[in-house]
Predict the 3D structure of the following.
Amino acid sequence: MRSASSIIIALEIGTSKVVATVGELDGHSVNIIGFGRTTSKGIMKGEAVDIRSASACAHAAIQAAEDQAGVTGDQVFLAISGGHVRGELHSLTHQVGRAGRPVSDEEVDSIRTLAGDCRVSEGRTIIQQTPRPFLLDGRLVRDPVHHEGRALTAGYWILTGDQTQVSEMLHLVNNFRLEVREILHAGLASGIMVTTAEERESGVMVLDIGQGTTDFAVYRHGACYLAGTLPVGGDHLTNDLSIGLRLNRAQAEKIKLTYGRAQAGPRVKDDLVWLDGDLSIGDRRLPRHSIETILELRVAELFSIIGKEVGEEVPLGQLDAGVILTGGSSRLPGIEDAASSVFGIQARRGHNFMYDGDSELGSPEFSTVLGLLYYGVSTLPEETASPGLFGRMKRAFRGLLPAS
Amino acid sequence: MEPDQPEAIANPPETVNLKMIGVGGAGTNAVDRLRMENLSSLKVAAVNTDTQALGSSPVEERLLLGAGVTRGLGAGGDPERGRLAAEADRDRLRELVEGVDLAVILAGMGGGTGSGAAPVLAEVASEAGALVMAFVTMPFTFEGGRRARQAEEGLIALRSACDAVVPLPNDLLLQQSSEKDGVLEALAMGDRWIDRAVTSIWAMLFRTGMINLDFASIRSVFPTRGGKTLFGLGYGEGADAADLALEDFRLCPLLHTPDFPRKSDRLLVNIIGGPDLTLDGVNHLMSNVAEEFGRDAHVTMGAVIDEDWDGRVELCVLGTTDMDGVGTRSVRRVARPKPRAASQPASFAGRGAPEGEQAPREIDGGDHAGSGAAARQRSPAVTATKPLQEEFAFSDEADRGYFEPTDHTLYHGEDLDRPTFLRRGVRIPL
């Protein structure tokens, strides 16, 4: 008999889809024993605009996943995204090591606590606090205990969200006899899935370009330096095409998927593509260059805004492992080139490398939910004591077949 | 003007007094250019705060506003100065619109005189009993956030004082210019759109057509104010001119922006064609337009035959949204003065007047909508007690189509929900 305590559910309520996965910890390996997916309704730009529809979608996805798993879970890990998410650095510097003594455990603990103890303004709630490495007299120090120095700086990147938005998301799940045990920013969840420890060490930026939002996370020295969300995604690409080419949404979506490119090729006169191509009434021809130009401008803008936001905290040139793109909209052809030309560093598409199965879960749009499951499993109580869990979990994932 | 109304209905449309008034630099330029069209019975006037710009205008009827406020030096890009200048010369504005049945106001939003004075003129013209339409250009995004904000405020003020307001975003007009056009040509695109619209309305009123429209039926399309106006043009020539005009109309960029409603309750459709235009062709166009853009539409149609238009068809559609139901739109009208009060302290003192006068005026129109409209006019008094609505007055103004249910995605003053190519002024050939 499976015990409920080793079962967790990872849930992502995204703009395009709601995905639930049920994972089971079995010794040192994780089995994905249930998978449910529904097309989202009532979610735009990562936020619930129609609670009733969004709730129905979430329940259908969880139900499907549990049915497949044959168990009911009670611990849900939920991904959070949306334009209401804001990030900021909260850091503190204290005098330490008085009278030439090395830094003590107590000093480190107390400054950690102080730095993490931050108040958020009315109507905001904390989603995540990720610690940055310590700085001792300006030098990066993993563990400052026993080092000598005078000024110790501890910093947290604090992600906050709109209280109403976050609690609405929680209610979507809580109404379904389940309880959200933890929330995780979608960018961080994806980051877990598509980056290696080595990449996080040398510096890497993860961009999860979804349908409604682009979630990002930047890692250096093995820690998450910053993360955030820009509520611009694939929907904007479609909307731009629809306005620019005077198409309805369905037509624009189809054109995006069929002919879309993130960088415009050289202009070829009379390079036209058919809207439907089936000789139906109302079919017309669209210049390929126009399609590509609309998308190129939007994608370049998206990247340059993120570049600007990130660049204020971490110079992009220091991210030696470059940029990793994931999320459904990262399928747009040419997007890596567009990213590297805007960011000025190498960019590539990520893959859910910890997931070794050949089901659709390997696709970029599932990075968040897999990362979330992985994170959820790593927090299960039996395992918290074991150091090096991360590495083992990774192997465990690799060896697994999906429940498909 | 009130006593003349019944006559206008009874008599042939020649008695209709149509006046086009350009306000501010952009508006004056537009009337200067349009005047060349030389449409008979169309009176033209130019109003500005800048003596120099006004002096160079070939328009005979010119009015310098607020000499005491601006000393004839212009409003310096400040709508408050433009408004004060207009308020100072309310009496002279009233003379300008005395006896006018249809006032067409042309202005560029974003600057001082256009954004500030045009709403005052619209208000004065309404008070004088005229049906007021405004065609206003909206600044390019690259002109900056301040101009965009001033333009939006000017547009809001205009909507509450006009029967129909057609905003023409420069970002979008650029899309219609041809490949090799420079910036000046792109800017002149706005004029061309206004030209076509005014010509179409003029033709409806003054040309004898296949289907004649009198002023009263045009008036009946605009029973309430404050809402968004659907506006689109289509042009076709050749053997399938009517079909091409319909196709061109469907691709009209104005119909695909969030600033225009997708569907209208009342449509005014006018077709100008040559002698080769058949009743069948007209019927085909009308039914297509009504089906696609009307919401169980009340369609008022006109068709004008012009000898010079052989093999060419122009389709012009104006649509309005009825301000009924829960009164959300009506609230907007009442709510406007509040948010503006902060930036423009002595704001629009006479605002109450046109609202009050509107109801009787519409009953005068003697059409089906009269009584209903009068009843709706009262609803604001009830809904205006909800102060919360006022907070949203600005954001619900800009209907953003697909992204409407969500918050604006603002980044350094730009709304990222709007297409990048529009904000960057990049032309996308179709």
Notes: The longest strand of chain B covers residues 294-305.
